[in-house]
Amino acid sequence: MRRVTGDGISLAVLDEGEGQPVLLMHGFPDSSRVWRHQVPVLVAAGMRVIVPDLRGFGESDRPGAVSEYTVSRSVADVVALLDGLGIERTHVVGHDWGAAVAWVLAATVPARVERLVAMSVAHPNTARMHSIEQREKGWYQLLFQFNEVAEQLLVRDDWKLLREILAGAGDLTNALEDLSRPGALAAALNWYRANLAPRLELEPGPLLPLVAAPTLGLWSTGDRYLTEDRMVGSAEHVTGPWRYARIEGASHWMQLDATERVNDLLLEFLVESELPAFPRTPARIDQ
After folding, report:
1. Which residues does 189 contact at the CB level (< 8 Å), separation at least 6?
2. pLDDT tens readout for residues 150-178
């Protein structure tokens, strides 16, 4: 790991390999370690793999204000990171909040994104309309809005509630180690408070631009938090070649549960020299 300056903060970043750059971005409640099964495979394929701890997570800085955790601030972190590493253009792979950052980066700073892989989280434009199913799956997001109350509930009884929310999936041991550090849990929850505050539904921001980069969307059938229709609907917000793959039997953390399948899809999509023209309607679904 090395330290690189982001948008006014310091980020911990893993930088391995040589060749075509690929940026991997994690989500809640993870750190760069959640990509440990992908890094060696991508490096072996001749890629330079850049894996930051996003602001507030892992070894990166944890600013105190909720406003420091908007997705736009992390997009600025990524741009500063790429500048600091001398990388003009990169493939981008994002999961969970990392996928949200990846979508916004590809939509608003398209010159920096070669190809995009979005895992679990769909293009933000699809989130402007909330189905009852998605509201039910995202119930915990409302709990996370309650400053200090959420922190106390999640930590109580040896993290009982968080363990139940994660349902035994994900990178629990590493996540609890990270979140136990002073200020770490509040920083992680601030991502939800900054970007998913209930008031934001009353006055949604402007639509994001369409994504021109070739894009692969991945969703897993065991995802307890996000619906498939949003990822499939992301095709309407991508003008470049679009591909969708459903990962059967994996939880939200498909990179851990279906490592070989995810790695094969990443290598196929990121390493091949030319992309075939995938059909856009209906979305292509790989079993």
Report:
1. 144, 150, 151
2. 999 999 999 999 999 999 999 999 999 99
Residue 43 forms part of a structural domain: yes
Nearest CA-CA partner of 14 in 27, 5, 3: 3
CATH of the domain at 225: 3.40.50.1820
Cis previous bond, 282, omega within 30? yes
The single-letter code of the amino acid at 237 is H
Structure tokens at 220: 């897993």
Neighbours of 139 (CB within 10 A): 10
**287 lies in a domain?**
no
Q: Looking at the DSSP assignment, which residues form a beta bridge with residue 15?
A: 50
- Give the count of domains, the chain: 1
- Can you give the pTM of this predicted structure? 0.95
Asked whether residue 264 is assigned to any structural domain, the reply reads: yes
List the structure tokens of 179. Answer: 């979140």
- CA distances from residue 154 to 12, 23, 128, 253 in whole angstroms, order as listed: 26, 31, 28, 20
Of 63, 56, 49, whose CA–CA distance to 1 is shortest?
49
Give the separation between CA 124 and CA 40, rounded to whole angstroms.
30
Q: Is 117 within the bounds of a domain?
A: yes
